Amino acid sequence: MKRHTLVLASTVCTAALALTASACSASDDTVSGGGTAASAPKDDGPAVDGGTLRIGLDRPFAKLDPADSGLTAMPMMILANALYDPLMINGDNGAVEPYLAKAFTPNTDATVWTLELREGVAFSDGKPLDAQAVVNHVDRLSKPEAKCACAADAATIGAMTVNSPTSVGFTLKSANAAFPSLFTRSLGYVSEAPAGPDTPAVGSGPYTLESVQPGVSATLVRNPSYWGTKGHADKLVYKVLPDTDSRYQSLRSGDTDLVWTETASQYKQAPGDNLRAATGPGSTSTVVFNTKAAPFDDVRVRQALQLAVDRAAVEKVVHLDQGKVSDGPIGSSSPYRGAASYPAKDTAKARELLAQAGHSDLSFEYLVDSRPEGQQRATVLQQMFADIGVKMTIKPLDPASLGTAMYQRKFQVMDFVTSMFGDTDTALANLYVPGAAYNFSGWENAKAGQAITTGRTTVDQAQRARSYQEAAQEVVNEAPMLFLTENPVGFLASAKIGGLPDVSKRTVVNVSPAGLWVKK
């Protein structure tokens, strides 16, 4: 799981998928640089082969297997992309593009999809990555023993058929106009099952595993039989460095060459330390209420807290003007974007609503992780809520405990930072439909649910946009979540690293290490 983050090459392949007979086709540019279409700075000079690239990870990994959703979280995809090729990748402005896939084509009502694979692709052990391999992979991850969060997505598939060595047919249980977006992470990182509990799944990526200390480090070497453009570095060394400041200092000192960060102060400091950045608007900060338990089952209480928040002040204090305010579940770069109506701060109205609900002396516990920006955000909110007479107690938890509380809905209110809103189709369907995999708030709203269903099943893009906007407004009106800020996330690198891509328009920052090189 991402830190509460979970998470096609032409216009018809955007997340808005205008459903036509045209296939979503990948261009050569899409696969250059090891899996993203983002361009590298022109002043890097020619690419250099050889050397070792050292990468600082922001969290431990349990196992090297796409079944572990932690490996396919956005900050960890730089490791996943080395070992496994994704069928689909996230492109600019919320688009979803083919990578290992050549095309992903729907029928007229989006109930049947046909996946066309590249020819000649093999796993690192030499076995073909063909249509049967895709079916085997999806089937494996759908089973309870795989313990993959993606099983909920796999469960939407009614049947899979091998049409040819390079063609798979998917018959869905219900229409889904955004079906290809389910294959950008775990389901899309096609792999062979691990030989044992302590061995990695076998992928087709540009690198293979040399050695690993789970939770500590991993060393990868170039895959000599890779089907695509070979990785530039001979070797990749990953180190787990969970502490934000220590990870940044490792980059300054030269112990690492590239690190993940979500800390605004580090982005501001980086130029002065001769560091380069590759960041995109890949994160949204929100507050989640448990709407299944008092007092947050009362919409007036949630609306009161919504009216107490000054989103611009949160952005300025926590993200230092590096981001922007968020005004709902349709992100600012979404193709479904429309006129949004989010209430401005109004402390008088907030107090009035609390009094009406009988909670003028409201107090509650706020769960948050230990990251500096999370702690800052909680402190700012605590002060804002105090202005309307509400007492908020901040309770920090480690990521694992926080995730458990979220999935088991054992919380009152919690901090939730996610990349999910980078894909509107997936976010709305997974966060706000009763019984959905990530409906952590437990919110139910018939009007929103119907609008989301209409949006996901319609072949009319304009209608889909209208439906999603209707659902989004219901989310804002009833406030099962409070929307705070859209934030930059991504990588910082030393000046000696070449090939760092432009991901400034990426709502999911997905970088492959194969496209990076170490300057001599």
Automatic annotation (TrEMBL):
Keywords: Signal. The keyword Signal applies. Coiled coil: none annotated. Residues 96-434 form the Solute-binding protein family domain. Residues 1-23 form the signal peptide. Pfam families: SBP_bac_5. Residues 26-49 are annotated as: Disordered. SUPFAM superfamilies: Periplasmic binding protein-like II. Gene3D superfamilies: Dipeptide-binding Protein, Domain 3, Periplasmic binding protein-like II. InterPro entries: Peptide/Ni-bd, SBP_5, SBP_5_dom. It comes from the Bacteria. This is ABC transporter substrate-binding protein.
